[in-house]
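Hi, here's the filled form for the chain we discussed.

Project: internal
Contact: R.S.
Residues: 451
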Amino acid sequence: MNISQESNGELNAIIHLNIQESDYIGTVNKQLTDYRKKTNMPGFRPGNVPMGLIKKKYGSAVLVEEVNKTVSDALNNYLIENKVPVLGNPLLNLEKNKQIDFDTQKEFDFFFDIGLAPEFTLNLADEDLTIPYYTVLVDDDEINKAVEDVKVRFGTEEHPENAGETDGLQGHFFKLDADGNRNEGDPGKKSYLKLEIIKNEDVKAELLAATKGGIVTLNLMEAIQDETKVRSLLGLSADETEGLNATWQFEIDEIIHPVDAVLGEELYKKVFPAKEIDSEEAFREALAEDISKHYTHDSDQQFLADAVAALIKKSAINLPDAFLKRWLLESNQGKITAEQIDTQYENYSQTFKWQLIEGKLREKYGDQLVVKEEEIRGKIGAYFQSIGGGTELNPQIEGIIDQILSSKDEKKRMHDEMLDGKFIEFFKNNLTTQPEEVTKERFFEIASQVK
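And the returned structure, exactly as it came back:
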């Protein structure tokens, strides 16, 4: 067997494999001998079918299979042993490969196109490489909303005889048939109806006049005039339509009047048990800090996206674009067209470039940028320990972890999430960052521009 490689333009090459009979005949004959031992044919004892008949029946198929396997193994070994930096996978050269006649040929030539990864430098300490890190400012509107939410969440309930405009009604909805009767045995749909969502004033007046145990007949779509809210009230999925425009009887089990919690040290302690807060101003500051933490994940993801984009731009990586477009088309046959690849190629090329940068960083920094399976297991285990009060992992929990990791999609999701976390931490420690405070609106505007 002879294998050679020749350049075919910048970042492109052709690999030529010359396969001779001696490269494959041994495995072909062994395979045919195995077939002979197993073949049953009328007129011959098992294992004694003449080899001529075996070759006539199986010879061509075995030859094709073994030659293809020989080519595949030889090509892969060549690329590995010679550390050829390929992008994508080798593709058959459409011009140099000739029609093969397996019945007459004993020597075969195969030509493969390959795309080569470029050489490039990467200097994380480059003074021009500065990445912004956005901190989202929390405005008064958000803090005010958080205060109101807390007052409701830690508030109490009263149960008056009649409901007020801001009250809610706990009860059961019963769908009526064409004759205005409930279906026999219908347990009803338990739900909570807030009077403020009722748009029809006549229906609202009837509900306000009702008492505990009272029954009000209504068409929910006419009363609420919002399909999403009606679906939520009845527990209907997006594709369920039964009952949307039906007539219902609402049987009131309880009238609930929410009473907001009063701002004061007792409430502050309930919301922030670990903090000493003695004023509304300090409470609002603590809420602002808490809200800001919710933006941290988004800020980190934006920082990662900006760092990746900056490294791609700075490294100025060239790619064998024509080869990669062809590889994308052939490896996704029937799933994407050449026109779609042309349209989306900028995104594809950014992915290829980041993979090259990621590989170079991993070569240099090793485990800092690798997520191992035991780390994924550890994260899942830590979650179970946190909800179990720090208890030791037991065989039952280990079994649950095994079950979670048996899902390739879930395992990949967790792996990618943890890898992002490692790159975020790595870039914070190894790139120059520029802190920048922005409003929520400005941050979302910046994030929307990420491709």
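Let me know if anything looks off before we file it.
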